[in-house]
Write a structure and sequence with these properties.
11 helices; 32% helix; elongated; 412 residues; Creatine Amidinohydrolase; six-stranded mixed β-sheet; alpha+beta; Creatine Amidinohydrolase, Chain A, domain 1; 2 domains; homodimer
């Protein structure tokens, strides 16, 4: 949680965090400033001090909402700096950062950098700045021991925002179900009122409209994939594909608050009208595995162990897994889950190699999403919910939603 | 244009471009791959060779659509690399890049990096990689002489995509006008059918729904600001503000193709029902300035000169400008325009200091957006259209839309 950042920095001998980029769709910045209309900013977090936010002069009002100490780029005029550096833009930018760092008294020590932005100019300017301030060590937190570690456990306010996104998500999924089942069917294909087949693209447009209406967005798209595409976990679906009865539909939706806030992550697999015996059987195995894993959740465990356990359970049904073959493309081919927060994938990790800090703890928010994929047989199945851990160590699913495979069609 | 990249690289002694990050909302990557469902990828562009795209094993199909040579991360197994590096993640990632670069024969020379992604882990890994490959010089293109220079002129296919976004934009703006004028008015405030005032938030939700319906999105929000907020160019509007007659509304909309493609940028200023004499007069000055600037557009000029010219024209009307006072907050307070493409702000620049390559040339796409702001008097005015330059040197506005200040209300 945020309150742990100073301690984590001190324990790890880090003198400051330097977060840069926009105040929207930039999880590291949004964690501190909230979703803010800042097109480009630099935030310095130093233990025991109020964070310092550097902002463009036109964005003063927006920056002030943060409650942080403010510093306007206008105080470091770029034209003057350019004259000083003989017209070299790279050196001028570096000199501006040097002056900013000097003005806040941060010219030596270890500084970890964060934020999503264009890496090219950033790298060039940091290289130059390093030469100007040789006692300053600028580097990144690859092991995620400071900011991502703090973000890996959520406080009650964060949980409430994720809960609101869970409600939005299941409402959209419920709407989708109502829309699908209200369609007429002709030769196993869903037909719109204009007589044309209902397509994946039609459904996705409607999903986007509902998300917008409920104040959410899906910056990384939505997976609504049918048949063979459902058997390829990262296929988001082919827009022109018609929706047909009896084929698996993998519907994986991971929206966030508008502007790039907290995410929710959720998957159901449906067969409209009917399912083949094979799909029924495999679906049952995924559902049993899901339930078994939920029953084995324990506070303090490293979720990487759960990934191994999933492989074990699915191998017992005779499937290939990423454990038996890292390049497997049918069977169990991905990771069991991941942390969820201001990024849709974040710490704790279920498959990525990490240190001991990677644990399920009170405040952890994570997905469970076992699946089985047989693209050559034209189907894939995945079930996913997002859970959190309470202070007293219980595992709670943010939102309930039926887990039925077969969706009865209402219209003839 | 894309066809110039090899030449630009050779002229500037650059051996390769290394573009990384996702295949969506990442302009440098999208320029080459199109909007692609790649969660994380690395693309290497080397003169005279087919670009090489490194992708996750589950995203092979999506990567193949690029037509580029492919390399799967699965061929550089991270667990094996971790064993080699004694469990250090940073070194393992760097070693993976080293092996990738070795496998494509790129271990020395000057490589420019591009792409939007988390800068922290990136910086740390690049620092490590630099130690492993000391003959490789990795840096960024701060002066925008290669990729951004190529992107600064658009070919006919790109222009057609921007034209389509211009149609979407003006359609949404037209819808907005229809919606506003259809509302009833009570004591100068627009009233919804439920008797409540129509708010900025209501209008913005509807704008988002239209954008979604027409296949667009607005990742950087929309400015729909009234009264004092209209006088602050970077205020996007207060969602709870009611829409009132007689106040200036600055409506600046800059959507892009869904998934993060080409942008369009457009602004109108409206007063519903009526406008004060002062606003009429200042609006007229902005409009005259806009028309004057359009008449002075010439192929080959550096648009920074147009910014100076705008200051001159507006100062003649007695306004303060950024030229007379760089920290000015009323009068003319921003830049006249900017290039538009896969980024909403890109080369050519109107105010940023740049070299001689910053010119209006056939294929240039840019905005013209003069404005005058008086927040303390409760108003602001801006007019903006996006233009392009034809092969024979004509300046064409992508989409026409009326420039009337006062919008007559239809309902009583």
């Amino acid at each position: 949680m945020k309150q742990h950042i100073d301690t984590l920095m001190q324990q790890n001998h880090v003198d400051a965090l330097w977060i840069s980029g926009a105040g929207q769709h930039n999880s590291a910045m949004v964690y501190f400033t909230g979703i803010a209309h800042l097109t480009g900013a630099d935030l310095f977090v130093i233990p025991g001090r109020t964070p310092i936010l550097c902002h463009g002069p036109m964005e003063r009002d927006e920056a002030a909402k943060s409650g942080f100490d403010l510093l306007s780029y206008a105080e470091f005029d770029l034209s003057a700096l350019l004259k000083e550096t003989g017209g070299d833009l790279r050196t001028a930018y570096a000199l501006r950062y040097k002056r900013i760092l000097e003005s806040i008294g941060l010219t030596k020590g270890k500084v970890l950098v964060y934020g999503s932005r264009d890496v090219g100019p950033y790298l060039a300017v940091v290289q130059e700045l390093q030469k100007m301030l040789p006692e300053l060590e600028l580097t990144g937190d690859v092991n995620e021991i400071i900011l991502l570690e703090a973000r890996a456990t959520k406080d009650e306010r964060e949980l409430e925002r994720i809960r609101a996104m869970a409600r939005v998500t299941t409402r959209v999924v419920g709407n989708t179900l109502d829309m699908l089942t209200a369609h007429k069917v002709r030769r196993d294909t869903l037909i719109k009122s204009d007589g044309q087949p209902l397509t994946i693209g039609d459904v996705k447009t409607q999903i986007n409209l509902w998300l917008t209406t409920y104040g959410a967005e899906n910056p990384e798209d939505t997976i609504f994939a049918i048949g063979r595409d459902a058997g390829v976990p990262h296929s988001s679906g082919t827009p022109t594909d018609p929706i047909r009865l009896g084929q698996t539909i993998v519907y994986d939706i991971f929206p966030c608050e508008q502007g790039g806030g907290y995410f929710y992550d959720f998957t159901r697999t449906w067969c409209l009208g009917y399912a083949t015996d094979e799909v029924h059987q495999i679906y049952d195995q995924v559902l049993r595995t899901y339930n078994q894993l939920v029953s084995e959740l324990k506070v303090g465990i490293n979720p990487a162990g759960l990934q191994q356990r999933t492989c074990e359970l699915l191998e017992a049904y005779g499937h290939e897994t990423v454990r038996t073959n890292p390049r497997v493309s049918s069977g169990y081919v991905h990771s069991l889950g991941h942390g969820v927060g201001l990024d849709v994938h974040e710490k704790p990790w279920f498959s990525r190699p990490t240190d001991d800090s990677n644990k399920l703890l009170p405040g952890s928010v994570f997905t469970l999403e076992p699946g089985l994929y047989y693209p050559e047989q034209g189907y894939g199945i995945r079930l996913e919910d997002t859970y959190y851990v309470t202070e007293d160590g219980r595992f709670i699913r943010f939102a309930d939603f039926p887990m039925d495979l077969v969706v009865p069609m209402r219209a003839g």
